[in-house]
Amino acid sequence: MPTSFTSFEPAVRQLLTDTPSMPATVLAERVGWEGSITWFRAHVRRLRPEHRPIDPSDRLTWLPGDAAQCDLWFPPKKIPLEDGTTSLLPVMVITAAHSRFMVARMIPTRHTQDLLLGMWELLQQLGRVPRRLIWDNEAGIGRGKRNAEGIGAFTGTLATTLVRLKPYDPESKGVVERRNGFLETSFMPGRSFASAADFNAQLTEWLETANARVVRTIKARPVDLLDADRAAMLPLPPVAPVIGWVNRVRLGRDYYVRVDSNDYSVDPNVIGRFVEVRADLSRVVVRHDGRRVAAHDRVWARGMTVTDPAHVTAAKALREHFQRPRPAADPGEAFDRDLADYDRAFGLLNGGLGNAAAADPGDGTVAGLGAGAVAGLRDGEVA
Q: Which stretch of DSSP H or E encloses residue 209?
């Protein structure tokens, strides 16, 4: 039965064919609709699915050892930090796609350095390296066609491949996405955490139980399939990848170095010299010529200053030594110079002109001045 919308339907269909996501209010304006916008929206809602492009998804088969899916999950509860504040911190989750075996750990930031540290620690827990590490477009991993700095060296050391999915392809990472949902609905309820370390301790204990549960889609327990999955993976590299926060700086007078957003004190005896700063998820170590000159627990809060009392004591001693008055010169030591030094400086000796009786050259000048003459001039006498 014709309605007030019937005459507008062909124009609306044409616009939806060209632009399926065009808002209903814009469609109404384009076709000149002047009636009820609610009525118009109801008809657009009916027509839009017919013009939306179809994006089918295939069922994926994950072979043993082939891939591990990686993702960041943000627990819906803030974690207490060292400065008394709280923050939402990311949890890195890696799931072996074939066995569905899951490993996870809370990390301090989404920076590339911490992402690589988290991946390496979780792969060590897994005990082997999958042939592919599948990520979405996480900024710390890479954007567009380029991986973030350090990703290539990391995967090269592990002899694996990092695959970044194209946008709008959630099915290719659905295994780990479902694990994230499982963490949120099964691990989080009723829990409280005193710190990030407490969170990781509770998570590690819970994962032992979670990996022993039957997964509905594969009708098996991940722990039972893990051996077959690991057997097809690559071994861990004999040499650990060079990852983490690494910097080489000249130590300033304030004897602090910065890692992420926090400052850590260093032995002030190496002020003005180059030091190498290295930090992982838990420690910050500073060395000068291979000798350790600072070591601190890494803090996850932001904008903090971490000070070793021994460094303050050493700085005080150095400052007092620097400010101590220098001994004055002995006033009894007169400055005596042989006047013949002046004759030699002006070429009046050993050149035939040192003789005080030398002849007048005839131009009114004194041909030569001996030591006595120079002394007389110094005393204000006329030569």
A: helix 196-210
